[in-house]
Specification:
It contains one helix and 13 strands, in the order αβββββββββββββ. It has one helix at residues 2-28; strands spanning 34-38, 41-45, 49-52, 55-67, 70-82, 88-99, 105-116, 122-132, 135-145, 150-160, 164-174, 180-183, 192-195. Strands 1, 2, 3, 4, 5, 6, 7, 8, 9, 10, 11, 12 and 13 form a 13-stranded antiparallel sheet that branches.
Length: 200
């Protein structure tokens, strides 16, 4: 009887330890460092979070949107979610990038950005810089329109490559093809451009 009791005690102890290990592995550690938004997008959190007056703050976040075989990834040094605006993620120190058909990387950088979870759209503002190969486009505001794979740049748009400098009010950049169109708000106004090797 003593042996049976010891055996039962040992068996119970093994079951408890096993259950604890399974619970820890699957429920605590399973998605550690990530928050699932929906089946096409995810925010990965590399550092601990904290809450301040209804605002949840994430450090070193990564947001990924997948459409077919194309990924658009956005990273932020800090992300804030206000409980009163659950659809909005406010990012600082922003760096987005995607791979184009030719294998090169299109990159978008800005001081701040607003990411909207429902539409997956992103509004960049504060020293926006877009680069691909030897082309660089700057503006104060840029809007990534997810369902169109389009970035619309506004306010002091300047495109520079090794041969040209082009200025305009608005620029439309296709993130699939990297086609860039620079426009003026008024039809009578002309887009300004000059060759780098030309004299002023």
């Amino acid at each position: 009887k003593m042996k049976i009791k010891n055996l039962r005690s040992n068996l119970f102890l093994v079951i408890v330890i096993g259950a604890s290990v399974i619970f820890y592995a699957y429920f605590i550690n399973k998605n550690k460092g990530s928050i699932k938004i929906d089946n096409k997008s995810e925010v990965a959190v590399k550092k601990e979070t904290k809450v301040e007056a209804g605002v949840t703050i994430f450090k070193d976040t990564e947001y990924k949107t997948t459409e077919g075989d194309k990924e658009y990834i956005t990273r932020g040094k800090e992300a804030r979610i206000d409980k009163n605006e659950p659809d909005l993620i406010k990012l600082t120190g922003v760096n987005s990038f995607t791979k184009l058909k030719d294998g090169t990387i299109l990159r978008v950088q800005s001081k701040k950005a607003n990411y909207y979870k429902k539409t997956k759209n992103i509004k960049y503002f504060g020293d926006v810089i877009i680069t691909n190969k030897d082309k660089r486009v700057t503006s104060e505001i840029a809007n990534f329109i997810s369902n169109k794979s389009l970035i619309k740049l506004e306010d002091n748009v300047v495109m520079v490559d090794p041969k040209n400098t082009i200025k305009g009010d608005i620029a439309l950049l296709d993130t699939k093809t990297n086609d860039l169109e620079i426009l003026m708000k008024k039809e009578e106004d002309k887009v300004y451009g000059k060759r780098q090797d030309s004299k002023k």
